[in-house]
Amino acid sequence: MTSIVQLMDSDEIAEAIAVSAMKMVGEYMGLSSAHIYITNIHDNTLMDIMAEWYAPGIVPRFDRSRDLPRYAFLSGTKLQAISSGSGVISAQWQEEMDNLGIKAMVVVPIRSSDRPAYMYACYDECDHERFWTVDEINFLSDATRIVESIIERRRYEINIAGSFESVRASLDNVGTSIYVREIRTGTLQFTNQTMIANFTSEVKYDKTEDRPLVRIFESQIPEDSDSGCIEIYNPQRDEYYELYYSHIIWMGQSPSLMCAILDITEKKKNQKKIEQLAYTDFLTGLYNRMCCERDLAKFVDSAVSEGTHGALLYLDLDDFKHINDGLGHQYGDVLLQAIAHSFTRVSGVEETCYRMGGDEFVIIIPPDSFSEMDRIVTDIKAIFNRPWFLKDADYYCTMSMGVVTFPGEGTQIQDLIKKADITMYEAKKSGKNKVAVYNSEMDSQSNKRLDMEKYMREAGRNGYEEFLVYYQPIIDIQLDGTPCVGAEALVRWDSSALGFVSPADFIPFAEYLGLIIPIGAHVLRKACETCKYWNEHGHPNYKVNVNLSVVQLVQPDIVQIVKTTLEETGIDPHNLTLEVTESLAINDMNKMKEVLAAIKALGCRIALDDFGTGYSSLNHIRELPIDVIKVDQSFVRELASDSYSQAFVRYISQLASIIDMSICVEGIETAQQFDVLADMDVRMVQGFYFDRPLPQEQFEEKYL
């Protein structure tokens, strides 16, 4: 609009100015063409063309400019806006638009002092469908009014005073606040009615020492800048403006500054709302991944430029899926919200907590809080030391955390996040509820993990035959000769691409990927088939123990899977013992009791593995339908010399005898450990002292 107003000072003829104005409007609005038509005063069926402009690629539609057939839409004294497919125009108008290839148009009458609408400005869209907005129509109307003033000025060759009144009349009808100040004297030369209405007090006090217009607007204009647009915030009104400014010769007299002010407060508020939606996680209220990457880039740049350091903490909740599946997604959401709220209460990172998706979070320790990193990590760990109250009961949920510092470990945002994610997985792999700090060796571990995932999935597509079942004998030490009475089935992966992969590496990863479900079903079936074979070949009482992952147990069809396996393999259910870890019972005890009771109802036996490592072990013995207690090997390592370990095993063996349960001690590796068990009420033992896990063929050669 400022550029169009500047045409008033042009020395060119009216037709040339009109062409320039049509070009400015057409390019700004992205139109196909723009014309100014003059109706013939003597023959109203004819018209002339005063000015025309076409966008690049649009073929001009006229080969002459005078005595052309007049269009039907060049009539009336009111603005006409026809959007694509509006269907509210006459058949003649529609036919003319179709012949011209016009899909949408705006027709603005141009008035003069002696003729009410003898000229028309037409703005056309021929390239695509268009639907005019109120703002676009207002702009085209305002621009045409200024062109109208210019034409009127040239037509009558009015004097400066007359021209000023014409300009005033035009600018008073523009919805933008406009004022003009003489540069030499600082005198306000012009303020339109919109300016006076919107900035009454500022205009009134312009002559005072404070000079509010200068303070608010002109002081923000860069030095040595003749024209431009800047955004301004007015704290007194809490409003935002776009200030368009230009140095002009006002009315041919003196160098002046013209300022056009557009209030964009609503636009800015809407932008903030959109930004909030774009950068905020709707469930937890934390910032999201997009915001994390933006903020991390800012903190990394700051650390590099100022020679400081910061840290990125990548957190993943341990076994969150079990709570989500066991209690329902609504309670999983409640837990995520509670954890997120707790993060924002940790001093030093209140505004730098992010949810990356699912149950993964990132916390950035900014450079100004880096000196407190140890305290911040401790505070975060403390959040997970207490239970969460969900569905009328307490549930525990721990987390694994990876820590990477910047800029020491890199300055690339995606690289830092990747390293933190790798480190978090290393923490999870080392036993969960751990914190790991990045080191360069983890990169090779990450590549190894990617290969492992690829080949593990390929093995699944081939029926999981690469996953072998080894058998470690279980020995009855109270019978003469300490005979083998069964075995624990243990999965081993002999990858065609990677060779033998350690169970400590692939089992946690399979749980992480959810592949432990089909792998576990494969192991269960193979173990049952093998035990059935043993039972039919001279050892009817041999039993097989099969571990059930927590991931398997929380599946809604786990009982049906066990039942189908029993039926299809034909094994005596009493000869199958399913081992579950004590930690699974920490969350949703009622659900676990229900599932284990249903499995036991099939005739299977239930063993509580890793006993002694949980939160409330004795309660678990009493509440869960357990047949066998397996004492964790951590109590056996020092059994030969540690009185506490000896007392613990003796106590558990006596307790098991009283409540009619069996006890199995794992991890016996030396004769000294075995001798200690001689005077205890322990019957079942397994460990390297007797034998390592063996392939099926070797186990049968030795024990069948």
Fold and architecture overview:
With 704 residues, the chain is an alpha+beta fold. Strands 19-20-22-23-24-25-26-27 form an eight-stranded mixed barrel, surrounded by five helices. A six-stranded antiparallel sheet has the order 3-2-1-6-5-4. The protein has a five-stranded antiparallel sheet with strand order 8-7-11-10-9. The N and C termini lie far apart (97 Å). The chain contains 24 helices and 28 strands. The protein is elongated.
Short structural description:
With 704 residues, the chain is of the alpha+beta class. The chain contains 24 helices and 28 strands. A hairpin with a 6-residue loop joins β1 and β2.
Global mean pLDDT: 88
Largest sheet, strands/sense/barrel = 8 strands, mixed, barrel
Total count of strands: 28
Distance between the termini: 97 Å
Flag low-confidence runs. Answer: none
How do the strands line up in the largest sheet?
A: 19-20-22-23-24-25-26-27
* DSSP helical segment count: 24
Helix content: 40-55%
Radius of gyration: 41 Å
Assign the structural class, choosing from mainly alpha, mainly beta, alpha/beta, alpha+beta, or little secondary structure. Answer: alpha+beta
Into which percentage range does the β-strand content fall? 15-25%
Shape, per Cα inertia axes: elongated
Kindly list the characteristics that best describe this protein:
8-stranded mixed beta barrel; 6-stranded antiparallel beta sheet; single chain; alpha+beta; 704 residues; 24 helices
Itemize the secondary structure elements and their pairings.
Elements: H1 2-6, H2 14-29, E1 33-39, E2 46-54, E3 68-69, E4 80-82, H3 91-100, E5 104-110, E6 119-125, H4 134-156, H5 160-172, E7 177-182, E8 188-191, H6 193-198, H7 200-204, H8 212-216, E9 227-234, E10 239-250, E11 254-263, H9 265-279, H10 289-306, E12 310-317, H11 320-327, H12 329-343, E13 353-357, E14 360-365, H13 373-383, E15 388-390, E16 393-395, E17 399-406, H14 413-429, E18 435-437, H15 441-461, E19 467-476, E20 484-495, E21 499-501, H16 503-513, H17 516-536, E22 543-547, H18 550-553, H19 558-569, E23 576-581, H20 589-601, E24 605-611, H21 617-623, E25 628-631, H22 643-658, E26 662-665, H23 671-676, E27 684-685, E28 694-695, H24 696-703
Parallel strand pairs: 17-18, 20-22, 22-23, 23-24, 24-25, 25-26, 26-27
Antiparallel strand pairs: 1-2, 1-6, 2-3, 4-5, 5-6, 7-8, 7-11, 9-10, 10-11, 12-14, 12-17, 13-14, 15-16, 19-20, 19-27, 19-28, 20-21
